[in-house]
Amino acid sequence: MKSRILASSVLLLLFCSGCGANSQHLRRLRVSKQCQGCSLERADLKSAVLAGANLRGSHLNRADISGANLFSADLNHASLAGANLRGSDLRVANLSGANLSETDLRGADLSGANLQNANLSNANLENADLSGANLLNAQLIGANIKGANLADIQSEGAIGLVMEEPKASQ
Fold first, then answer.
1. DSSP per residue, 122-156
2. What distance in Å separates the CA atoms of residue 30 and residue 84, rounded to the nearest whole number?
3. By the number of CB atoms within 10 A of the CB, which of 4, 121, 124, 163 ranks highest?
4. Closest Cα partner for 40 from 69, 66, 19?
5. Low-confidence ranges of the chain (pLDDT < 70)
6. Is the pTM of this model over 0.70?
7. pLDDT at res. 5
8. pLDDT on residue 158
């Protein structure tokens, strides 16, 4: 009997969506949009409306935040490593010092976002809108910026940002 309970528990842990997220923190975020330093690893926040949310220093590693509204959210020094932010609205969000390594940001709107000192190593920014974003001293080693809108970005000190030179007309 004990072995069946143990086996069931192991299976539940393997297939549980958002098991890494602290349920109290998740509830607090959904109710108040205030969750500084919260533990939300692997949380299911797909299409969540979190405009203006305070997630400073929170851990959202491998969370599914695709299609979410994080307009003007504060994610200063948050850890979002391996998170899915595909198609999310991160306009004017504060992501300074955030860990966005290996994050899926395809098609995300990061226009006007503060990404100063952020780690975007190996992030997928394909077709993302970064117009007017602050990328001062950001790390972009191995990042995919194919088709990204990089108009008017601040990129002094950015490491690994390789912008294509316009092709000369022949």
1. T-B-TT-B-TT-B-TT-B-TT-B-TT-B-TT-B-T
2. 18
3. 124
4. 19
5. 1-20, 164-170
6. yes
7. 40
8. 97
Query: Look-up: residue for tokens 């990061």?
Result: 110
Query: Is 35 buried (19+), middle (13-18) or exposed (0-12) by CB count in 10 A?
Result: buried
165 DSSP assignment: P
3-state secondary structure of 31: helix
Read out DSSP for 62-115?
A: T-B-TT-B-TT-B-TT-B-TT-B-TT-B-TT-B-TT-B-TT-B-TT-B-TT-B-
pLDDT at residue 41, as a whole number: 96
Rounded Cα distance, 92 and 7, in Å: 46
d(CA 114, CA 133): 6
How far separated are the first and last CA of the chain, in Å rounded? 77
